[in-house]
């Protein structure tokens, strides 16, 4: 594959024989999503892989392990990190605090090392905001429908009242005219 060819090329060009490929240096995720911080390293001897997270809240060591030997996961990430032999890690259930820079260091047993960086952006899910807007819009539509019906009823009542008043007015004028003619 292309990744293997790149690793072989980097391994041949690296003086100590350590190479590291970061295929996806930028990751966009939403809250509660699982993300894979994918890398692939190659070296001639036994390597130590170390991951750190740097953000505005500080620097945190996530995990460190040697090929086939031990894995030392930070207590903060104990239940949230899965490691892979190629140097990648999976971070489960990300939150806003997980946004930032992830630095991976691969160190060969003879002291040669190489670095890689992945930038992670974490966004909040905006469904709650959209839900609020939808409910508010439905409420306002219902209130306006009630107000329109009320105005229609008021208008009808006003027309009926005006008809009755006009009818009474014409009836009383007719009575006055009749009374006047009789008196003469």
TrEMBL record:
<feature type="domain" description="Immunoglobulin V-set">
    <location>
        <begin position="26"/>
        <end position="116"/>
    </location>
</feature>
<dbReference type="GO" id="GO:1904891">
    <property type="term" value="P:positive regulation of excitatory synapse assembly"/>
</dbReference>
<feature type="transmembrane region" description="Helical">
    <location>
        <begin position="130"/>
        <end position="154"/>
    </location>
</feature>
<dbReference type="Pfam" id="PF07686">
    <property type="entry name" value="V-set"/>
</dbReference>
<dbReference type="InterPro" id="IPR013106">
    <property type="entry name" value="Ig_V-set"/>
</dbReference>
<dbReference type="InterPro" id="IPR013783">
    <property type="entry name" value="Ig-like_fold"/>
</dbReference>
<keyword id="KW-0812">Transmembrane</keyword>
<dbReference type="GO" id="GO:0005886">
    <property type="term" value="C:plasma membrane"/>
</dbReference>
<protein>
    <submittedName>
        <fullName>VSTM5 protein</fullName>
    </submittedName>
</protein>
<dbReference type="GO" id="GO:0030424">
    <property type="term" value="C:axon"/>
</dbReference>
<dbReference type="GO" id="GO:0046847">
    <property type="term" value="P:filopodium assembly"/>
</dbReference>
<keyword id="KW-0732">Signal</keyword>
<dbReference type="InterPro" id="IPR015631">
    <property type="entry name" value="CD2/SLAM_rcpt"/>
</dbReference>
<dbReference type="GO" id="GO:0030425">
    <property type="term" value="C:dendrite"/>
</dbReference>
<keyword id="KW-0472">Membrane</keyword>
<keyword id="KW-1133">Transmembrane helix</keyword>
<keyword id="KW-0325">Glycoprotein</keyword>
<dbReference type="InterPro" id="IPR036179">
    <property type="entry name" value="Ig-like_dom_sf"/>
</dbReference>
<feature type="signal peptide">
    <location>
        <begin position="1"/>
        <end position="19"/>
    </location>
</feature>
């Amino acid at each position: 594959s292309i990744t293997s060819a790149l690793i072989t090329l980097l391994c041949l060009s690296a003086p100590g024989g350590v190479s590291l490929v970061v295929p996806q240096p930028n990751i966009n995720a939403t809250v509660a999503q699982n993300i894979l911080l994918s890398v692939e390293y190659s070296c001639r001897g036994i390597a130590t892989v170390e991951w750190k997270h740097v953000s505005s809240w500080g620097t945190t060591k996530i995990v460190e392990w040697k090929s086939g030997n031990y894995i030392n996961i930070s207590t903060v990430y104990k239940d949230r990190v899965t490691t892979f032999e190629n140097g990648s890690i999976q971070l489960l259930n990300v939150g806003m605090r997980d946004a930032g820079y992830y630095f991976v260091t691969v160190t060969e047993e003879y002291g040669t090392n190489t670095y890689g960086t992945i930038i992670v952006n974490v966004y909040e899910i905006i469904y709650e905001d959209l839900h609020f807007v939808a409910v508010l819009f439905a409420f306002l539509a219902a209130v306006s429908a009630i107000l329109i019906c009320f105005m229609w009823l008021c208008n009808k009542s006003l027309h009926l009242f005006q008809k009755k008043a006009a009818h009474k007015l014409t009836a009383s004028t007719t009575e006055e005219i009749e009374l006047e003619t009789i008196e003469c």
